[in-house]
């Protein structure tokens, strides 16, 4: 007999579970109140009995801490339960273990485990529990999963998916009956939110493999546009927090994201999955910190903007060179050169009678080569003085010690990062490849090599990051990965799409990243979920990606509309906006090539409720957004309008990248407009 066979039974079971959940929640309320009351009693007792003996105070202190900890864990449990009352579960498999006399267990799967202590049964399994993996990996029939005690094999005799909202079952689907995944189709046709959605109910097999990969120390995910890379990476973090809860917590994770808007857009996934948000930063911020916030520099946005608006061959050459592996090899050779030639020892007259000979000092510089160069001075001073003490039996004053250390430091010609970096180009006989911009501003491409040199000379401070997540991996050149590897020798998940680079002269493919990090397992995601087939086909014509396989979902064909002049184009865009406003869509992205064009367009449109997103913005908002292709990367909209796709505006390979990024942001509807002649990129 099948447990809860009919839909009617399932509906009444759902109600039963919700009632039980509510009951437990109200018990935990009482329990929390008890703990609060007890803590208050302790406090009163301590206040009114000031002269209690220290033993009693100590034991009370322990009891208070104990009560506090239990109270906190009860609150934590309560929060988790409150979260799942609306959607207790989304799937079920009935599993019977092989070679065991056990009966079939119905495994209901939700965001969190719900273990009923009274009946001692697990009513809901966390989607991350080992047994739940079968829900994603298998259809009916033979199945297996990895339990802590080894592989468990058996048979799945039933598989169901539910759509439950606000505690009500909207529908349920018997997996064996569906030809293709109806629930996935329904999820994909839903309108875009101002925050990324969690996808626990519809994670696909190829995605599940990535989420649950525990072996790879560095996992590099190359995924086509809209393949769920970012979603999967965040679900992977939630999974790792669950699977390794004794050794890793959210504060041990660091996300490197391209900008604040993107960070805001993805910020709700982990809380939705019941985990705390994890620290987030940007590549620029990290490099800037390594360099002690010392330099002014052109930001990555400014670099991309300059490449889009006034690229010069020299600028491109500088970026390309600093993104090559040859450059890294040369830097490494130069670091060796510093080691061998930058320390020029001299005799130091320590006292009237004692001189430390140059050769002896030089010898010590190389003796301590396990330390970064600038960190050797202290150890060298101590060692030299110890040796001298043995030989001459004298005591040194602090002043003499400091003097010796200062002299040793002075003998090293590599105390200034920037000077050393400039020396490198002279040493390479390529001085033209370094250019300081107006008012002592460095180019963005110089930031990482300078940080690399700094770390080689000075070392880096320890951090407690246990898992590093790098999104939009294609935009970071190899030298940046070299720096990250030095700073974060921990596990990593690195993800991106080589086809979506906005940094074409300095981008990295998965293979290059693997080479730079000297490790890494590459996994691919080829199915694209975001856009309709029509939009995906259109984008494929701009940049073909043979790996890409669209999910079968259909919609309107993208439109490319021609106008006689700018004024007509502008009023057409206004009409398109009005059509959007009258539709059920929730988000519209108007994506221009550059930030300046987006700003001008926003001014010209003069439409209230339109939000202009600049590289300085910090939050994503729902509704109508106008922004640059660079800023739009990683985001998605129900509808996208791309204005000014004329031949003058879009004409180069970097423009192609921008156009590709912009088109792949659209989920359901896409329109492009231009005046006079269309860009050749659209043929
Ligand atoms: N298994 C899935 N179930 C439901 N929706 C999914 C699934 N996988 C991906 N999606 C949806 O596809 C869209 C794209 O996901 P996401 O932004 O994570 O992809 P991406 O590969 O990082 O995209 P891009 O590189 O183009 O910015 C999102 O709306 C996401 O919810």
UniProtKB/TrEMBL annotation:
Q: Which SUPFAM superfamilies match?
A: P-loop containing nucleoside triphosphate hydrolases (SSF52540)
What's the Enzyme Commission number for this chain? 5.6.2.4
The source's superkingdom equals Bacteria
Q: Which GO terms describe its molecular function?
A: exonuclease activity
Binding residues for ATP: 223-230
**Sorted alphabetically, which keywords does the UniProt record give?**
ATP-binding, Exonuclease, Helicase, Hydrolase, Isomerase, Nuclease, Nucleotide-binding
UvrD-like helicase ATP-binding domain mapped to chain residues: 202-532
The catalytic activity, as recorded, is: Couples ATP hydrolysis with the unwinding of duplex DNA by translocating in the 3'-5' direction; ATP + H2O = ADP + phosphate + H(+)
> Which Pfam families does this entry report, sorted A to Z?
UvrD-helicase (PF00580), UvrD_C (PF13361), UvrD_C_2 (PF13538)
PANTHER family from the UniProt entry = DNA HELICASE IV, UVRD / RECB / PCRA DNA HELICASE FAMILY MEMBER
Protein name as catalogued: DNA 3'-5' helicase
Species this protein is from: Bacteroides vicugnae
Its taxonomic placement starts with: Bacteria, Pseudomonadati, Bacteroidota, Bacteroidia, Bacteroidales
């Amino acid at each position: 007999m099948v447990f809860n066979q009919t839909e009617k039974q399932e509906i009444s079971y759902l109600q039963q579970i919700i009632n039980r959940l509510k009951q437990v929640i109200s018990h935990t309320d009482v329990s929390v109140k008890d703990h609060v009351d007890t803590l208050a009693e302790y406090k009163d007792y301590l206040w009114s009995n000031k002269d209690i003996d220290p033993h009693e105070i100590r034991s009370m202190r322990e009891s208070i801490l104990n009560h506090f900890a239990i109270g906190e864990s009860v609150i934590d449990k309560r929060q988790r339960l409150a979260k799942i009352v609306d959607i207790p579960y989304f799937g079920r498999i009935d599993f019977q273990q092989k070679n065991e006399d056990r009966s079939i267990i119905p495994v209901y799967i939700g965001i969190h485990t719900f273990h009923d202590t009274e009946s001692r049964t697990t009513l809901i399994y966390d989607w991350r529990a080992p047994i739940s993996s079968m829900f994603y990996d298998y259809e009916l029939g033979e199945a297996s999963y990895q339990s802590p005690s080894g592989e468990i094999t058996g048979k799945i005799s039933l598989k169901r998916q539910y759509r439950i909202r606000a505690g009500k079952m909207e529908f349920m689907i018997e997996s064996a009956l569906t030809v293709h995944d109806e629930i996935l189709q329904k999820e994909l046709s839903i309108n875009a939110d101002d925050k990324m959605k969690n996808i626990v109910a519809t994670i696909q097999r190829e995605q599940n493999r990535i989420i649950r990969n525990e072996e790879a120390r560095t996992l590099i995910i190359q995924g086509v546009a809209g393949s769920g890379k970012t979603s999967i990476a965040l679900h992977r973090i939630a999974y790792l927090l669950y699977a390794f809860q004794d050794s890793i917590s959210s504060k041990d994770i660091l996300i490197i994201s391209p900008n604040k808007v993107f960070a805001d857009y993805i910020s709700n996934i982990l809380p939705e999955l019941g985990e705390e948000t994890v620290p987030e930063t940007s590549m620029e911020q990290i490099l800037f910190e390594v360099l002690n916030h010392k330099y002014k520099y052109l930001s990555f946005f400014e670099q991309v903007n300059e490449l889009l608006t006034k690229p010069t061959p020299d600028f491109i050459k500088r970026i390309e060179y600093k993104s090559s592996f040859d450059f890294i090899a040369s830097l490494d050779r130069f670091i060796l050169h510093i080691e061998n030639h930058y320390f020029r020892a001299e005799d130091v007259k320590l006292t009237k009678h004692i001189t430390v000979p140059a050769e002896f000092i030089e010898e010590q510089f190389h003796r301590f080569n396990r330390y970064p160069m600038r960190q050797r001075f202290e150890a060298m001073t101590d060692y030299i003085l110890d040796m001298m003490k043995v030989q001459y039996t004298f005591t040194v004053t602090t002043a003499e010690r400091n003097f010796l250390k200062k002299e040793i430091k002075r003998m090293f010609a590599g105390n200034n990062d920037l000077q050393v970096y400039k020396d490198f180009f002279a040493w390479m006989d390529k001085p033209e490849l370094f250019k300081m911009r107006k008012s002592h501003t460095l180019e963005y491409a110089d930031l990482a090599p300078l940080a690399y040199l700094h770390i080689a000379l000075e070392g880096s401070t320890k951090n407690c990051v246990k898992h590093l997540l790098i999104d939009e991996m294609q935009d970071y050149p190899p030298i940046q990965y070299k720096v990250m590897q030095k700073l974060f020798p921990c596990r990593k998940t690195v993800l991106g799409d080589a086809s979506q680079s906005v940094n074409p002269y300095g981008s990295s493919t998965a293979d290059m990243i693997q080479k730079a990090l000297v490790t890494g397992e590459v996994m691919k995601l080829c199915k694209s979920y975001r856009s309709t087939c029509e939009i995906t086909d259109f984008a494929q014509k701009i940049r073909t990606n043979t790996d890409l396989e669209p999910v079968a979902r259909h919609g309107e064909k993208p439109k490319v509309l021609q106008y006689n002049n700018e004024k007509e184009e502008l009023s057409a865009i206004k009409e398109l906006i009005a059509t959007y406003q009258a539709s059920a869509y929730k988000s519209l992205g108007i994506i221009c090539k550059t930030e300046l064009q987006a700003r001008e367009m926003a001014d010209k449109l003069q439409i209230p409720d339109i939000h202009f997103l600049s590289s300085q913005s910090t939050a994503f908002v729902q509704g109508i957004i106008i922004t640059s292709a660079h800023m739009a990367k990683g985001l998605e909209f129900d509808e996208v309008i791309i204005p000014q796709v004329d031949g003058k505006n879009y004409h180069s390979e970097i423009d192609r990248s921008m156009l590709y990024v912009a088109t792949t942001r659209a989920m359901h509807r896409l329109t492009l407009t231009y005046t006079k002649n269309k860009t050749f990129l659209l043929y």
